[in-house]
Amino acid sequence: MEELSAFSERDFTSVAKMAQTNPQQAQFGPWKITIYDQENFQGKRMEFAASCPSIMECSFDNIRSFKVESGAWFGYEHTNYCGQQFVLERGEYPRWEAWSGSNAYHVERLMSFRPINSANHKESKITLFEKENFMGHQWDLQDDYPSLQAMGWGSNEVGSMKVHSGAWVCYQYPGYRGYQYILEFDHHGGDYKHWREWGSHAQTAQIQSIRRVQQ
Length: 215
What we know:
Blueprint: E1 6-7, E2 18-19, H1 25-28, E3 32-38, E4 42-48, E5 65-70, E6 73-78, E7 82-88, E8 91-93, H2 97-100, E9 112-115, E10 125-131, E11 135-141, E12 160-165, E13 167-173, E14 177-184, E15 191-192, E16 209-212
Antiparallel strand pairs: 1-2, 3-4, 3-5, 5-8, 6-7, 6-9, 10-11, 10-12, 12-15, 13-14, 13-16
């Protein structure tokens, strides 16, 4: 098995330049992810402690398995943090179903990723608004909800959201299924005035379950 070990500079624009074995958390921050170009943690291997806008710059054509050793991460279907989003929390992901299995859409591509800096499972707060631009009925959440409607939200859509702390994953359907939208406190200042701001893949205002990101 061919193995490479590297990390990327945390400037969100370039990929691994400097080889490092077992980077220390104190030096490189609280994030570490190891990617593989084959399923079940086989083939070429690289380690990252920060953002990667394009795995093709590391001579990967796709990520087919990976291990999140510390921190929480965004994964993206396309390069430059575009396309469908996937929340990557600590654990092992031997095949694409492990990170997109709850998604209603068949996606086997994972081409870029970055840390979720504001993930804080224990201290998270978000406000949902019935309409765009923080108008209409509102609801403050500090816990996970597998069905917003079952807990009293009067619609299957959300017009806008304000993240006061932490990071959240919103799902199109109940039971944490369908498209995933990851909303974070340190992006847009925590303000998401319209559903189009949830991600480049957002096509609808439909949100029916939501949970906090595990750090």
